[in-house]
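Whether sequence alone determines local backbone shape is best considered at the level of individual chains. In the encoding step, the backbone of a single protein was reduced to a row of integers, each denoting a local shape. For completeness, the protein is quoted in full, as a sequence line and a line of structure tokens.
***
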Amino acid sequence: MDLDVFVNTHHTEWDRLDHLLRRGRSLTGDEADELVALYQRTATHLSLIQSSAPDPLLTARLTQLVARARSTVTGTRRASWRDAAQFLTAGFPAAVYRSRHWWIPTAVLSTLLAAVIGWWIGTHPEVQASLAAPEDLRALTRPGGEYETYYSSHPAASFAAQVWTNNAQAAAMCLVLGAFLCLPVVWILFVNVLNLGVGIGLMSSAGRLDTFLGLVLPHGLLELTAVFVAAGTGLRLGWTVIDPGPRTRRSALAQQGRAAIGMAIGLALVLFVSGVIEGFVTPSGLPTWARITIGVAAELAFLVYVYVLGGRAARAGDTGDLEAEGRSAELPAAA
């Protein structure tokens, strides 16, 4: 492409589009139709320049012009309660469902690793001695020790809010930091698994594993599932950087990133439920079987939500991404 010839041929169209955009709302019907046509042609021109004869200054000018035109043509769309309902009943569960091939293996491997770490610590006194002094370990594991009083150390509402905030931050970090080639996600996940494994090992060595599981399972089933979903989605995002598939890396990462941000919001709601259970149910005087039943019911409700609503929405084509009018315009990629 001869860039000078191309600019001389089309610069009057670009100038005319800029003039119409400056007119704002005072356009006539014919001028509005002209603006739409010029917007479409200018977007095509920008695509051709980017793929055949990239020029930084011209590309910047046309990019800005196309963005202004698109904003004028599509208008500003305000979020509504309908959008929130659509997100909760379709977008979020569909995104979780579509990423199940990432977070289910993550959950299985993490659970197995926690069990192995717990077995290793519980059956090797020398490993326990390397973690803390014997009196400190007894303070953690004895009846009424720190593992038990942790859940009732603060007022329930305050404790639930603190737990929710910490877990939501961890989930959001997994989702956002996944773009850094998965490594931060693996570290965050390992720290969580290690903490769980240490608790299992120390309490089992003291003969109180049943007490520990009775305290962890009511809230831990849903909480860990949310963390595994976040970690699996973060790993998927990181893999998109490595292998974007048939799309451009920028386009693939943008789509997965938008879906991940939406999942961060949805998982914050899931972790809020988990935090309420941890703050009010786990330290309550309910029998252990009743507390675990509540935790199992919450976990099953989430899985049904994902597999029924999410599966239906995913089969209908919902990816958890923004609707088309809410995304930035994507230009054709060069072959």
